[in-house]
Automatic annotation (TrEMBL):
<protein>
    <recommendedName>
        <fullName>S-locus receptor kinase C-terminal domain-containing protein</fullName>
    </recommendedName>
</protein>
<dbReference type="GO" id="GO:0004674">
    <property type="term" value="F:protein serine/threonine kinase activity"/>
</dbReference>
<dbReference type="Pfam" id="PF11883">
    <property type="entry name" value="DUF3403"/>
</dbReference>
<feature type="region of interest" description="Disordered">
    <location>
        <begin position="77"/>
        <end position="104"/>
    </location>
</feature>
<feature type="domain" description="S-locus receptor kinase C-terminal">
    <location>
        <begin position="64"/>
        <end position="101"/>
    </location>
</feature>
<dbReference type="InterPro" id="IPR021820">
    <property type="entry name" value="S-locus_recpt_kinase_C"/>
</dbReference>
<feature type="compositionally biased region" description="Polar residues">
    <location>
        <begin position="81"/>
        <end position="104"/>
    </location>
</feature>
<dbReference type="InterPro" id="IPR011009">
    <property type="entry name" value="Kinase-like_dom_sf"/>
</dbReference>
Amino acid sequence: MSLLGYAWGLWTDNMLMDLMDETLQDTCIADQFVKCLNIGLLCVQSNPSDRPTMSIVIKMLDGETVNLPAPKRPAFVIGRDQSSSTSSNKPESINEVTNSLGAR
């Protein structure tokens, strides 16, 4: 399972604090941690129109947005079986990239 898939699972189970590194627990403000994860999940939405622009992200991080929208399932966990807790070697998404180099 990818880190994104793991974070999404914790989001849906309302257990985001389980994602925090133990060394940060005494120094990190829980609300800010959850806010950053919420914004991160908004930035990886399947539909680009559901993703915030960078200027909106900055406003969200600066605290100008009080109520953040709840994210939908991220693009890279669409194929994830929510009932399965075991990992597999299957990709969670299929992305194709073609690079072409030509002489000038």
